[in-house]
Amino acid sequence: MMQTSISLSKSKTDLSDASRDKVKILVLGEAGVGKTTFAQSVKGKAVRNPTWTVGCSVDVVEHSYKAGTPQETLYLIELWDVGGSRSHRNSRHVFYQNAHGVILVHDLENRKSEEALRLWLTELFDDTPNCVNSPLHPSSSFSRLPTFDTEGLAGERSQMPILVVGAKLDMAPQRPRSQIATDCGVDELTLDCRQPISPGSTNGLKLSRFFDRVIDKQTAPTERRRLTSQGYNVVDRRRRLY
Amino acid sequence: MIIVADTLVMLFSEVLFFAGGWLFFMKQLFRDYEVQQRTVQLMFSVTFALSCTLFELIIFEIVGVLHSSSRFLHWKLGLFLILFVLIVILPYYTAYSVFKNIRLIQKHIVVPLSVFSWMVFIYFFWKLGDPFPMLSPKHGILSIEQAISRIGVIGVTVMALLSGFGAVNAPYTYMTVFMRPVSDNSITQMERKLSQTMDILVAKKRRLALAERERAMAVFSRGSEEGGLLRRLWGTVSPAGSALREQINTLETESAGLEELSRHLFLEVVELRNMKERLEYSQTWQGRYFNVMGHFFSVYCVWKIFMATINIVFDRVGKVDPVTRGIEIAVKYMGFQIDIPFYSQHISFILVGVIVLTSIRGLLITLTKFFYAISSSKSSNIIVLLLAQIMGMYFVSSVLLMRMNMPSEYRSIVTEVLGDLQFNFYHRWFDVIFLISALSSIGFLYLAHKQAPADTDALS
């Protein structure tokens, strides 16, 4: 993003410190919803015909933390765009380690991709893969998933910032706010990912606020919070990983 | 009066089959997608319902339910309807959906273009009849026989391909002999390699982002301070500028290479984990049962390939169906005194029923797997229409081939309704395609088996 020349010189001196901090944000969602296009548009590039993401592709974007204030610093944020094919579900957990935030992408044209986001959150917070691929049953990879638990999720939610993105707005302009964004109490962006996100627009501001929240959580000291027992375990795990 | 009652029974069963197809579509096929075009769902369910009606009529024929004249009437009606759907409605609607989705084509050309492509389809459909010895010339052009003969060829080809591949794949998947052992250690090692590659990749991307930022700033800041075009150009071609550009290019190539490596490693991890899951499954009771079944299947597969070869080489045509032959053997050689018509009817009912149910279930499972593998949110509707077409042709041809499994007193209705087809040709064609499909599946699976990743733990 372009800045004024005053903050240029200031952030240049801060660059060496902040740019070493690792800030990792996962971009999750069903196959074909537009995660790769979204990650590229955050970076400022337009992708015409993206191919299916195999494994994970990483994009590094610059972000001015607390832009416009005297504490403005430049951070390098890694967006880990994880491929959403169902057949790769058993190996994806390799990419989930040490993540500081998660962006959930769904397709506004397809309501089922939004419902599937709950399963993605469950997959993320339940680190162990436990699916049995029966040779006969075509849809067995989802038959053994733990059921969605709102309380546990709300507990976990207070540690890892979540952003919900509805892609392909040009195809379905009339969708209301998604259920999962309301349930988790988080922000939602709706956009056509092929258009650039201008920094001053609502979407740009929400994105910027989300990045700031992630950086806050990443650098904040790990304090004890009142959580459910499940949530406490997750905090424990997080501390061990650090 | 009888005809009205029979028609009501048929209608009721058709509604049942329609509901079954509708549910299958919603719950299984379109599990991940929102149904936006109800017409597609309607067509799929209609094709499924009509196909099931044909099977139902065969069973009614054997068991003797309903009046024979009303059965004949419903045969003709059902056949006509399904042929109409398969030849006219489905191809036209598929072409229409394809053209509607392409953005370059304007709205008012879509319909004429679809009609034109339907005519092209009909032309090739007609031409399909030329190389095959199918009909005697005494029937007219627009008769049911002409249409069924061509649909029969396509459907029998699909049946034989699936059958050949399935016969080879079933023992390969179920039997533990073919499963390679995978240790947890090798999986962890591979995953660690993947994480390390990702870490290096991320470090390079960070350096790349910083370098690009420096380049942007170099051009911009110089331009804003001195404000000359020449100065700005100098910034890009100066030694400092070109060194930066080279660094960026190197980093970009290195990142691309690392990304490729990470994808490769990820796919290896997926394969190792899949193999481990298969091994774990084979230890369960279900898995052990299928392992044993796999041994029987492999024997059956070898026997079928052998029989197909014999049939082709010796040009053998089976005249007697297995039910009558089985009863003959039981009576003559084993001396059982049995009531032949009674047993013949019941055994052929059970045999035909089992064949019908397994072929419906088998086809639906195959269609589902196929659909999950190749569909995306954009193409899901068109793929469903193509699958509905294949399903209809498959079921019509299986009615055709089932004639061989029925005793002659029940064959008559099929012969009468389907007309003067060369049934022997279709059996021969099935054998040929089955043989080709089975042999090439064996070759293909052999190559794939050889290329599977070796267990590095076992090697060290």
Automatic annotation (TrEMBL), chain A:
Pfam family, any one: Roc
Keyword GTP-binding among record annotations: yes
Domain of life: Eukaryota
Xref: PROSITE patterns: RAB (PS51419)
Database matches in SUPFAM superfamilies: P-loop containing nucleoside triphosphate hydrolases
Keywords: GTP-binding, Nucleotide-binding
One GO MF term attached to the UniProt entry: GTP binding
Protein's recorded name: Rab-like protein 3
TrEMBL record, chain B:
Origin: domain of life: Eukaryota
Annotated compartments: Membrane
Primary localisation category: membrane
Domain spans labelled Golgi pH regulator conserved: 143-208
Cellular component terms (Gene Ontology): Golgi cisterna membrane
Membrane topology designation: Multi-pass membrane protein
Molecular function GO terms recorded: voltage-gated monoatomic anion channel activity
Pfam families documented for this protein: ABA_GPCR, GPHR_N
Source organism: Plectus sambesii
Residue span(s) of domain Abscisic acid G-protein coupled receptor-like: 281-450
Keyword Transmembrane tagged: yes
Keyword Membrane attached: yes
Reactions catalysed according to its record: iodide(out) = iodide(in); fluoride(in) = fluoride(out); bromide(in) = bromide(out)
TM annotation in the entry: 12-30, 42-65, 77-96, 108-126, 146-170, 292-314, 347-372, 384-406, 426-447
GO biological process, one term: intracellular pH reduction
Protein name (database record): Golgi pH regulator
Family note: Belongs to the Golgi pH regulator (TC 1.A.38) family.
Record keywords: Membrane, Transmembrane, Transmembrane helix
